[in-house]
Specification:
Elements: H1 2-7, H2 11-36, H3 38-56, H4 64-83, H5 90-117, H6 125-149, H7 154-177, H8 184-205, H9 211-233, H10 239-258
Helix pairs in contact: 2-3, 2-4, 2-5, 3-4, 4-5, 4-6, 4-7, 5-6, 6-7, 6-9, 7-8, 7-9, 8-9, 9-10
Length: 264
Protein backbone atom coordinates (compact mmCIF):
# COMPACT_ATOMS: atom_id res chain seq x y z
CA UNK A 1 0.00 0.00 0.00
CA UNK A 2 2.82 2.42 0.89
CA UNK A 3 4.59 1.67 -2.39
CA UNK A 4 1.35 2.24 -4.32
CA UNK A 5 0.91 5.64 -2.70
CA UNK A 6 4.54 6.50 -3.46
CA UNK A 7 4.17 5.56 -7.13
CA UNK A 8 1.03 7.70 -7.40
CA UNK A 9 2.97 10.83 -6.39
CA UNK A 10 4.32 13.24 -8.99
CA UNK A 11 7.92 12.74 -10.03
CA UNK A 12 9.16 15.78 -8.12
CA UNK A 13 7.34 14.59 -5.02
CA UNK A 14 9.03 11.20 -5.37
CA UNK A 15 12.40 12.92 -5.73
CA UNK A 16 11.77 14.85 -2.53
CA UNK A 17 10.77 11.63 -0.76
CA UNK A 18 13.91 9.89 -2.03
CA UNK A 19 16.10 12.79 -0.89
CA UNK A 20 14.60 12.76 2.59
CA UNK A 21 14.96 8.97 2.71
CA UNK A 22 18.64 9.32 1.73
CA UNK A 23 19.08 11.73 4.63
CA UNK A 24 17.42 9.28 7.02
CA UNK A 25 19.60 6.42 5.80
CA UNK A 26 22.66 8.62 6.29
CA UNK A 27 21.85 9.05 9.97
CA UNK A 28 21.47 5.29 10.35
CA UNK A 29 24.60 4.67 8.32
CA UNK A 30 26.68 6.92 10.56
CA UNK A 31 25.92 4.82 13.63
CA UNK A 32 26.13 1.41 11.92
CA UNK A 33 29.31 1.86 9.86
CA UNK A 34 31.74 1.39 12.75
CA UNK A 35 29.80 -1.60 14.05
CA UNK A 36 28.99 -3.48 10.83
CA UNK A 37 31.53 -2.06 8.35
CA UNK A 38 31.19 -3.42 4.77
CA UNK A 39 27.83 -5.04 5.57
CA UNK A 40 26.38 -1.61 6.37
CA UNK A 41 27.66 -0.32 3.02
CA UNK A 42 26.16 -3.24 1.06
CA UNK A 43 22.77 -2.96 2.78
CA UNK A 44 22.82 0.82 2.32
CA UNK A 45 23.56 0.55 -1.43
CA UNK A 46 20.72 -1.95 -1.93
CA UNK A 47 18.29 0.27 -0.01
CA UNK A 48 19.36 3.32 -2.01
CA UNK A 49 18.92 1.47 -5.31
CA UNK A 50 15.32 0.60 -4.41
CA UNK A 51 14.56 4.14 -3.26
CA UNK A 52 16.03 5.72 -6.40
CA UNK A 53 14.26 3.20 -8.64
CA UNK A 54 10.90 4.10 -7.10
CA UNK A 55 11.74 7.78 -7.55
CA UNK A 56 12.68 7.63 -11.24
CA UNK A 57 10.49 4.64 -12.17
CA UNK A 58 9.37 5.47 -15.73
CA UNK A 59 11.27 4.62 -18.94
CA UNK A 60 14.03 2.66 -17.21
CA UNK A 61 15.36 -0.09 -19.48
CA UNK A 62 18.59 -1.74 -20.60
CA UNK A 63 21.81 -0.14 -19.43
CA UNK A 64 19.85 2.61 -17.66
CA UNK A 65 19.25 0.16 -14.81
CA UNK A 66 22.93 0.77 -14.11
CA UNK A 67 23.89 4.19 -15.45
CA UNK A 68 21.02 6.17 -13.89
CA UNK A 69 21.80 4.84 -10.43
CA UNK A 70 25.58 5.11 -10.21
CA UNK A 71 25.92 8.83 -9.50
CA UNK A 72 23.16 9.24 -6.88
CA UNK A 73 24.21 6.11 -4.98
CA UNK A 74 27.92 6.93 -5.03
CA UNK A 75 27.23 10.56 -4.11
CA UNK A 76 25.23 9.55 -1.04
CA UNK A 77 27.73 6.83 -0.10
CA UNK A 78 30.70 9.14 -0.66
CA UNK A 79 29.10 11.93 1.38
CA UNK A 80 28.60 9.59 4.32
CA UNK A 81 32.13 8.20 4.15
CA UNK A 82 33.56 11.71 3.90
CA UNK A 83 31.60 12.75 6.98
CA UNK A 84 33.46 10.08 8.93
CA UNK A 85 36.71 11.95 8.20
CA UNK A 86 35.44 15.24 9.66
CA UNK A 87 35.91 16.26 13.31
CA UNK A 88 33.07 15.10 15.53
CA UNK A 89 31.67 18.58 15.92
CA UNK A 90 28.22 19.66 14.80
CA UNK A 91 29.77 22.70 13.12
CA UNK A 92 31.60 20.44 10.66
CA UNK A 93 29.19 17.54 10.19
CA UNK A 94 25.77 19.22 10.11
CA UNK A 95 26.42 21.16 6.86
CA UNK A 96 27.47 17.89 5.21
CA UNK A 97 24.31 16.14 6.37
CA UNK A 98 22.31 19.04 4.94
CA UNK A 99 24.15 18.66 1.64
CA UNK A 100 23.01 15.05 1.20
CA UNK A 101 19.25 15.60 0.59
CA UNK A 102 19.89 18.76 -1.45
CA UNK A 103 22.56 17.10 -3.60
CA UNK A 104 20.46 13.96 -3.99
CA UNK A 105 17.46 15.96 -5.22
CA UNK A 106 19.55 17.88 -7.78
CA UNK A 107 21.21 14.69 -9.03
CA UNK A 108 17.85 12.92 -9.36
CA UNK A 109 16.53 15.80 -11.45
CA UNK A 110 19.62 15.49 -13.63
CA UNK A 111 19.29 11.72 -14.02
CA UNK A 112 15.65 12.19 -14.97
CA UNK A 113 16.72 14.52 -17.77
CA UNK A 114 19.11 11.87 -19.09
CA UNK A 115 16.38 9.24 -18.78
CA UNK A 116 14.01 11.32 -20.87
CA UNK A 117 16.72 12.46 -23.32
CA UNK A 118 17.46 8.82 -24.15
CA UNK A 119 13.92 8.61 -25.55
CA UNK A 120 13.36 12.05 -27.05
CA UNK A 121 15.09 15.40 -27.54
CA UNK A 122 15.08 17.68 -24.51
CA UNK A 123 16.45 21.23 -24.20
CA UNK A 124 17.80 20.83 -20.65
CA UNK A 125 20.41 18.28 -21.70
CA UNK A 126 23.30 20.76 -21.79
CA UNK A 127 22.50 21.98 -18.26
CA UNK A 128 22.24 18.37 -17.09
CA UNK A 129 25.72 17.66 -18.44
CA UNK A 130 27.14 20.59 -16.48
CA UNK A 131 25.49 19.43 -13.25
CA UNK A 132 26.58 15.85 -13.88
CA UNK A 133 30.17 17.00 -14.43
CA UNK A 134 30.24 18.90 -11.13
CA UNK A 135 28.46 16.16 -9.17
CA UNK A 136 30.84 13.52 -10.55
CA UNK A 137 33.87 15.53 -9.42
CA UNK A 138 32.41 16.16 -5.96
CA UNK A 139 31.59 12.47 -5.57
CA UNK A 140 35.09 11.52 -6.68
CA UNK A 141 36.53 13.93 -4.11
CA UNK A 142 34.50 12.38 -1.29
CA UNK A 143 35.35 8.79 -2.20
CA UNK A 144 39.01 9.38 -3.02
CA UNK A 145 39.47 11.29 0.24
CA UNK A 146 38.20 8.30 2.17
CA UNK A 147 40.32 5.77 0.25
CA UNK A 148 43.50 7.82 0.63
CA UNK A 149 42.85 8.38 4.34
CA UNK A 150 42.73 4.60 4.89
CA UNK A 151 46.42 4.33 3.97
CA UNK A 152 45.98 1.06 2.11
CA UNK A 153 48.86 -0.69 0.37
CA UNK A 154 49.60 0.26 -3.25
CA UNK A 155 47.71 -2.80 -4.50
CA UNK A 156 44.55 -2.29 -2.47
CA UNK A 157 44.44 1.46 -2.96
CA UNK A 158 44.83 0.96 -6.74
CA UNK A 159 41.97 -1.55 -6.70
CA UNK A 160 39.65 0.73 -4.75
CA UNK A 161 40.52 3.79 -6.82
CA UNK A 162 39.76 1.79 -9.96
CA UNK A 163 36.46 0.66 -8.43
CA UNK A 164 35.59 4.34 -7.97
CA UNK A 165 36.81 5.69 -11.31
CA UNK A 166 35.25 3.03 -13.56
CA UNK A 167 31.55 3.50 -12.62
CA UNK A 168 31.82 7.29 -12.26
CA UNK A 169 33.41 7.60 -15.69
CA UNK A 170 30.98 5.09 -17.19
CA UNK A 171 27.89 7.02 -16.11
CA UNK A 172 29.41 10.36 -17.14
CA UNK A 173 30.40 9.30 -20.66
CA UNK A 174 27.16 7.39 -21.23
CA UNK A 175 25.21 10.63 -20.83
CA UNK A 176 26.71 11.83 -24.13
CA UNK A 177 25.79 8.66 -26.02
CA UNK A 178 22.49 7.80 -24.29
CA UNK A 179 22.54 4.46 -26.11
CA UNK A 180 20.93 1.18 -24.93
CA UNK A 181 24.41 -0.37 -24.65
CA UNK A 182 27.83 0.93 -23.67
CA UNK A 183 29.87 1.78 -26.78
CA UNK A 184 33.37 0.46 -27.45
CA UNK A 185 34.65 4.03 -27.46
CA UNK A 186 33.40 4.56 -23.92
CA UNK A 187 34.90 1.28 -22.73
CA UNK A 188 38.24 2.23 -24.28
CA UNK A 189 38.27 5.62 -22.55
CA UNK A 190 37.37 3.99 -19.23
CA UNK A 191 40.22 1.50 -19.60
CA UNK A 192 42.72 4.25 -20.44
CA UNK A 193 41.60 6.44 -17.56
CA UNK A 194 41.76 3.52 -15.11
CA UNK A 195 45.37 2.83 -16.14
CA UNK A 196 46.20 6.51 -15.76
CA UNK A 197 44.89 6.59 -12.20
CA UNK A 198 46.69 3.39 -11.28
CA UNK A 199 49.94 5.02 -12.38
CA UNK A 200 49.10 8.22 -10.49
CA UNK A 201 48.38 6.18 -7.39
CA UNK A 202 51.78 4.48 -7.70
CA UNK A 203 53.38 7.92 -7.85
CA UNK A 204 51.56 9.54 -4.93
CA UNK A 205 51.80 6.46 -2.72
CA UNK A 206 55.50 7.17 -2.26
CA UNK A 207 55.14 10.95 -2.31
CA UNK A 208 55.11 12.79 1.07
CA UNK A 209 51.95 14.85 0.78
CA UNK A 210 48.84 15.44 2.89
CA UNK A 211 45.57 13.60 2.29
CA UNK A 212 43.82 16.82 1.25
CA UNK A 213 46.51 17.82 -1.25
CA UNK A 214 46.80 14.30 -2.66
CA UNK A 215 43.04 14.13 -3.15
CA UNK A 216 43.00 17.59 -4.73
CA UNK A 217 45.69 16.52 -7.18
CA UNK A 218 43.83 13.34 -8.19
CA UNK A 219 40.52 15.16 -8.57
CA UNK A 220 42.25 17.84 -10.64
CA UNK A 221 43.54 15.14 -12.99
CA UNK A 222 40.00 13.75 -13.14
CA UNK A 223 38.65 17.24 -13.83
CA UNK A 224 41.05 17.67 -16.74
CA UNK A 225 40.49 14.23 -18.28
CA UNK A 226 36.69 14.35 -17.97
CA UNK A 227 36.65 17.86 -19.41
CA UNK A 228 38.72 16.83 -22.42
CA UNK A 229 36.57 13.72 -22.93
CA UNK A 230 33.41 15.84 -22.78
CA UNK A 231 34.72 18.17 -25.48
CA UNK A 232 35.68 15.13 -27.55
CA UNK A 233 32.21 13.58 -27.25
CA UNK A 234 30.61 16.91 -28.14
CA UNK A 235 33.02 17.24 -31.11
CA UNK A 236 34.35 20.52 -29.72
CA UNK A 237 37.88 19.42 -28.86
CA UNK A 238 40.27 22.09 -30.08
CA UNK A 239 43.60 23.47 -28.91
CA UNK A 240 41.94 26.06 -26.68
CA UNK A 241 40.21 23.70 -24.20
CA UNK A 242 43.26 21.40 -24.18
CA UNK A 243 45.46 24.39 -23.31
CA UNK A 244 43.06 25.61 -20.62
CA UNK A 245 42.83 22.20 -18.94
CA UNK A 246 46.60 21.73 -19.21
CA UNK A 247 47.19 25.04 -17.42
CA UNK A 248 44.94 23.92 -14.56
CA UNK A 249 46.82 20.62 -14.27
CA UNK A 250 50.20 22.38 -14.27
CA UNK A 251 49.12 24.89 -11.60
CA UNK A 252 47.85 22.15 -9.29
CA UNK A 253 51.01 20.11 -9.84
CA UNK A 254 53.19 23.12 -8.98
CA UNK A 255 51.16 23.75 -5.82
CA UNK A 256 51.61 20.12 -4.85
CA UNK A 257 55.39 20.35 -5.33
CA UNK A 258 55.67 23.64 -3.43
CA UNK A 259 53.61 22.40 -0.46
CA UNK A 260 55.49 19.13 -0.15
CA UNK A 261 57.30 18.51 3.12
CA UNK A 262 60.24 16.13 2.87
CA UNK A 263 60.94 16.20 6.60
CA UNK A 264 59.64 13.51 9.00
Amino acid sequence: MAITKLVSLTKRQRFIFASISAFGLSLIFASSLTQFGPIAIIVGVIALYVIIYLAILENISGIKYLTLFILPILFILGSNLFIQLLPERKLFRYPMYALIPLGTYIILLTENIFNVAAVRTIQLLRAAHAVSYLATLITAFFLLSFIISMHYSVLFSSIWITVIIIPLTLQFLWTFDLTPKITRRTLLFILILSLVFIQINLFIHFYPQSIAMTTLFMVSVYYVTLGIMQHFYEKKLTRKPILEYSIVAIIVFIIMIVTTSWHG
